[in-house]
Design goal:
The complex is a heterodimer of chains A (282) and B (298). With 282 residues, chain A is mainly alpha-helical. Chain A is built from twelve helices and no strands. Chain B has two domains: 8-53; 92-297, MetI-like (MetI-like fold). The chains are: A mainly alpha (282), B mainly alpha (298).
Chain lengths: 282, 298
């Protein structure tokens, strides 16, 4: 880096090109493909710009308004609602916790039905796996709306919503874990005359337990995040307050609630990381 | 055969040597059982605490749960009482409008993913420990990623709807922000795990930062970048389906309207459309990911 520039030999580009034609001069077809792919991937953006009628004026105006909101957010204050928000946040964490635990408890038996090395019948496996996929492709918030239709407004609908959408995700993950489990312990149990139940308990469960616990803890953290927004549709937790304060343009309170959420998520993250280390030992 | 309950070792060791071993085995078993019981008790206490917090009682649970099946039965019936699949034309009566909204949803997901991923690519090099030696800018980039992905995208959408007005634009922006956060973290981790040989080689030729990132790091991380971006696209299409709940474009608006107004057949029709779409995108992106991994690693 520090050598004087003049002393460096000039690279002989011509000779290099002749020696390594593939590197120095990629073929025209390859270049065109790359260029074509770039243009093709940009086309939808232009389409979006046209179809959604986005204008520079809208962008500039919106961004300047956003800038004003950010200025108005400071200093953050809860006004007199601090305890109300704290209670709602507690509700949020409770929703995430119950949803995660409930989903995990439900998903374990169903993932056994979907795992190739446990369930011999292909039809059952396919049906259970497709159900997991179907449940997973519907967002938590949509489930929340559906559950509100069933059990009414309130945190119960939120718990059920998180439980449902996580059931799909857990089911898929647990099934994959089961299917990649080592078969040797199973053979070992079988060789001592152990039945299917014994091999499940002593050969498969010890292998999948650390992974499952890790996943549950990870999901608890991410569910706390989703639980903060299900209140927007009326399924309990801090989301409802956040929604109200944004709609009434109380930016200082909005900022305070967001900070509360960030702190809560950070705490849960710490707890779940510690527990994961304690359980799995890494 | 009378000894069948005793462990196998009992046949190999004399009793006096065996006794301490068995005792220690029993002790460790007892300890792990006690641990498990303690864990279970703690869980039960936590569950009751959480249920109290979320105002759920077992009675409520069982009385309300019966409604679930009847709700789904209603989803499966048209207004005239016939089963939905008996008359698909009537069931999907609004398909033209729904398909347009669905296209809008996918476009929101695509635009958000594309722009978000582009920003994340550029920023990921300055967030990586091995390429950016300046710890101040590095931690600024990392904190920024963290903020972007911890605040839920719907919260961004809510704020953006107020600032930019109702429509797909706030939805796209919210997804961009969330994508920068999520992909930025994953990309940075990929960059931090590269082989530093090519980077050192470029440094030796006196290459600048951009050249190092472009020719030293990018070729190594590109397959991973594409793979993560495709995964994110699927997630983003799914979250674009709910952006409409807060007025940020897409099919969510229509879905929420039909749920709020109890148009059961419409709810199930839109849900079917969403599920099928997400399903197709899931299959396409995973195919693409596998073929990319195959072509780029060979």
């Amino acid at each position: 880096m520090n050598a004087p520039q003049e002393s460096w030999p000039k690279p002989d580009v011509k000779a290099l090109t002749q020696a390594y034609p593939n590197i120095m001069r990629p073929s025209l077809g390859r270049r065109l493909t790359t260029l074509g792919l770039c243009i093709a991937s940009l086309l939808p953006l232009i389409l979006a710009w046209q179809m959604f009628g986005i204008s520079w004026a809208q962008l500039v105006h919106g961004t300047s308004q956003l800038g004003q909101f950010v200025v108005l957010m400071f200093p953050p204050t809860p006004e007199r609602f601090f305890w109300l928000f704290l209670h709602a946040l507690g509700e949020t964490v409770a929703i995430a916790f119950l949803g995660t635990v409930g989903a995990a408890v439900l998903a374990v038996p169903f993932s056994l039905l979907a795992a190739r090395n446990v369930m011999p019948f292909t039809l059952v496996r396919v049906v259970v796996k497709r159900s997991f996929d179907t449940i997973r492709s519907v967002d938590t918030l949509i489930w929340a709306l559906i559950w509100i239709g069933v059990v009414g407004l309130g945190p119960f609908a939120g718990v059920l919503a998180i439980m449902t959408s996580d059931f799909g995700a857990f089911g898929k993950l647990f099934t994959e874990t089961l299917e990649t489990a080592d078969t040797k312990p199973v053979e070992g149990i079988a060789s001592t005359g152990g039945g299917a139940l014994a091999s499940l308990r002593f050969a498969l469960l010890p292998q999948i337990m650390p992974v499952i616990v890790g996943q549950i803890l990870y999901f608890f953290e991410s569910n706390t995040r989703s639980a903060t927004i299900i209140g927007v549709v009326g399924a309990g937790g801090i989301g409802l307050h956040l929604y109200e304060e944004i709609r009434t343009l109380e930016w200082q309170i909005v900022c305070f609630i967001v900070i509360m959420i960030l702190i809560t998520v950070a705490i849960i993250d710490q707890i779940s990381t510690r527990l994961r280390r304690a359980f799995i030992g890494i | 055969m009378a000894d069948s309950t005793r462990p196998l070792t009992s046949q190999l060791l004399p009793d006096e040597q065996l006794a301490p071993l068995l005792a220690s085995y029993a002790r460790s078993l007892r300890k792990s059982r006690l641990d498990f019981m303690g864990f279970l008790a703690a869980m039960v206490v936590l569950i009751f605490l959480a249920a109290w917090m979320a105002e759920i009682s077992p009675v409520l649970f069982f009385t309300k749960l019966g409604g679930f099946t009847s709700y789904f039965a209603r989803l499966a019936h048209l207004d005239n009482g016939a089963l939905v699949w008996s008359d698909p034309v009537e069931w999907f009566w609004g398909w033209k409008r729904w398909l347009r909204l669905l296209g809008e949803t996918i476009l929101i997901g695509y635009t958000g993913t594309f722009i978000g991923a582009t920003v994340a690519v550029v920023m990921s090099f300055s967030g990586a420990t091995n390429l950016n030696k300046n710890s101040v800018t590095r931690s600024i980039v990392k904190r920024f990623f963290e903020f972007c992905r911890t605040v839920p995208d719907l919260v961004f959408a809510l704020v953006f709807v107020v600032a930019y007005g109702v429509g797909p634009l706030p939805g796209i922006l919210a997804i961009i922000i969330h994508t920068i956060g999520a992909l930025g973290k994953q990309f940075t981790e990929l960059v931090e795990n590269i082989d530093m040989g090519p980077v050192e080689g470029l440094e030796a030729t006196g290459a600048g930062r951009v050249a190092i990132a472009r020719f030293g790091a990018l070729p190594q991380v590109l397959p991973g970048y594409l793979s993560y971006t495709l995964l994110r696209f699927e997630i983003n299409v799914r979250s674009a389906t709910i952006m409409g709940f807060v007025g940020a474009g897409g099919i969510g608006d229509e879905l929420m309207l039909s749920i709020r107004r109890f148009y059961y057949a419409d709810i199930s029709a839109i849900l079917v459309i969403i599920i099928v779409t997400v399903y197709i995108i899931d299959i396409l992106t995973s195919r693409l990911r596998y073929s990319l991994q195959g072509s780029l690693s060979s």
